[in-house]
Sequence to fold (277 residues):
Amino acid sequence: MGHPRAPAAGMAPPRETAQRVHDYGHLVRRWRRIARGAGLRLEEFARQDEFPVFCVRTKGDPMEGGLYVSAGIHGDEPAGPEALAQWAEAHLATHARDLSAPSLFLLPCLNPWGLVNNRRSDHKGRDLNRVFDRRLSPLAELRRLLDGCRFDLALHLHEDYDAQGAYLYEVHTGAARWGAGLLRACTSRSLPVETRRRIDGWRFRDGLLAQRIDLGAVPGQPEAVHLLRHHAPHVCTFETPSEFGLVRRVRAHVRFVSACLKQLKRLETKKGAKTGF
Ligand SMILES: [Zn+2]
Fold:
């Protein structure tokens, strides 16, 4: 989740950001193509200031099982939205046609104003990942959309200006611990693993939150806590180091999403074996 620090204003973007990662109109056009190619709808479910906010669902409403992925709740963390779009460009059409694949609930960018303005907060200065339970757009509309949904896993894509490597908060109510394997899958050829032992007050080991989280002690109302309380027994918040090159950060996020899906497919296969399908 990182600290509320933004790069200095007026700083020239590095060459790698020539991919227009803060151009929301471009991101939406890409998602329209992605959704069309996969035979799915890009659904506008809310507006934030003048920006439409979208989701893509591969199965009906309410969703039972599968994966929830959200990106871009912090606008100055562009690797998440870029990676989710890249993952979907490469895989969503095939995934959507595979009837045995886990269902998906994708949020390409939860804070478009922040993305466009390279700010962590929304247009009124609020950190949306600290007020997830409040009655404000697009969070209130999203909570309504999630009503009755139960996912196997919820995934939140973030970045951190203080990090020197990738790391993961993995919280669950009894599901398998996948964290170490997931981190290995996405860092081995992309990024180092964070070595700090304490991040935002939480104790980490080898880039993984190695402490049981007391939900009551979590400050504010983060998206991850809301998902864990109401919609998923297993929640992962993946963070990449903002000061590293964008291409490497995006690659790590793409691999993280793929690794999560691989684990979910294994889980489905196991469930299928048990029930004889
Ligand atoms: Zn963040």
Summary: Residues 1-2, 74, 77, 158 surround zinc ion (CB under 6 Å). The longest helix spans residues 246-275. The CA atoms of residues 109 and 232 lie 20 Å apart. The chain has a mean pLDDT of 89.
